[in-house]
Specification:
Layout (H helix, E strand, L loop, with lengths): L2 E5 L10 H10 L4 E4 L6 H13 L4 E12 L2 E8 L6 H29 L5 H5 L10 H10 L6 H8 L15 H10 L3 E4 L8 H9 L5 E5 L5 H13 L3 E4 L23 H15 L1
Parallel strand pairs: 1-2, 2-3, 5-6, 6-7
Antiparallel strand pairs: 3-4, 4-5
Length: 282
């Protein structure tokens, strides 16, 4: 089945509404998608309702991408099919959302104090849909909007990194806790774009011990050798392979790779569903 298991909407750092994503998916011939906003699941119900109203045959999978930190490195964990009403899962989302708010307010305070750049918290919050996840891309855009930098890339280079005097690291959860929570909620935890994790090879077996069930081998950052490497690791540890465009916006960097252009083999869907059935029977 032609699928994309990693897509963002304006409920986190994507630019399109869930409805727009559905339209694009159908337009590009996708048969199944997962919306995986950062620390947020609100787009799922919106997209599901829209699909039903339009009578589309697009299959929608409940997904999420949780941002975690380990040894100062970002480790993103994707989750599929979890019971979103699970108490620990809900508490995890609340913890992650609160950490985003605290980080943003602290950075804005330092920008005003040390750089004279004045940004209202509401101006950052309004960049996402109601209840959405604010984050570094929104802060960078807000800095640019008030003239603090010429563009978003400059804002990142100047302010949104660990060595900047105005940057505050988000106090997020560990990847081990997140994997365990998703797994205990009946979901399939998957390490996202391991290319971005320098210690992925040593971290993966540790995450397997906490319940991780997959590796996102197919990703726009992964060349053929990386796909082969992570697929081999998945086989070694008895994990499934997943993939997706990690679509945020149609630009030169991301390209129009939502949909069918991320080279996700059709068998990936079958393996994901097979894993779901296995967990349901456990």
């Amino acid at each position: 089945m032609k699928s994309d298991f990693h897509i963002h909407t304006y409920y986190s750092d994507g630019i399109f509404s869930p409805e727009k994503i559905v339209d694009l998916a159908v337009e590009h011939g996708l048969e199944c998608i997962a919306l995986t906003d950062h620390d947020n699941i609100l787009s799922y119900d919106v997209a599901k309702k829209y699909i039903e109203e339009k009578g589309e045959k697009l299959e929608l999978i409940q997904g999420v991408e949780i941002n975690t930190l380990y040894k100062g490195m970002e480790v993103h964990i994707l989750g599929y099919f979890m019971d979103v009403k699970d108490k620990d899962f809900q508490n995890m989302l609340k913890t992650q959302q609160q950490a985003r708010i605290v980080q943003t307010k602290e950075i804005l305070a330092l920008l005003k104090k040390k750089e004279g750049i004045k940004i209202k918290f509401e101006d950052v919050k309004n960049m996402v849909a109601e209840g959405g996840s604010i984050g570094r891309p929104h802060i960078a855009k807000a800095i640019t909007n008030v003239g603090g930098t010429a563009n978003v890339i400059e804002a990142y280079n100047k302010y949104i990194h660990a060595d900047s005097p105005v940057y505050v690291e988000r106090k997020t959860m560990s990847p081990f806790d997140v994997v365990e929570i998703i797994y205990d909620a009946g979901g399939i935890p998957v390490i996202a774009h391991p290319y971005d994790v320098p210690i992925a090879d040593e971290l993966i077996p540790q995450l397997v011990n906490c319940g991780m069930r997959g590796i996102e081998a197919y990703h726009r950052k992964h060349s053929a050798p990386y796909i082969e490497h992570f697929s081999t690791l998945a086989e070694e540890y008895g994990l499934i392979v997943t993939g997706g465009s990690d679509f945020h916006a149609p630009n030169i960097m991301n390209g129009q790779i939502i949909l069918g252009k991320n080279f996700v083999p059709e068998w990936v869907y079958d393996k994901l569903m097979e894993e779901k059935r296995r967990l349901d029977m456990a």
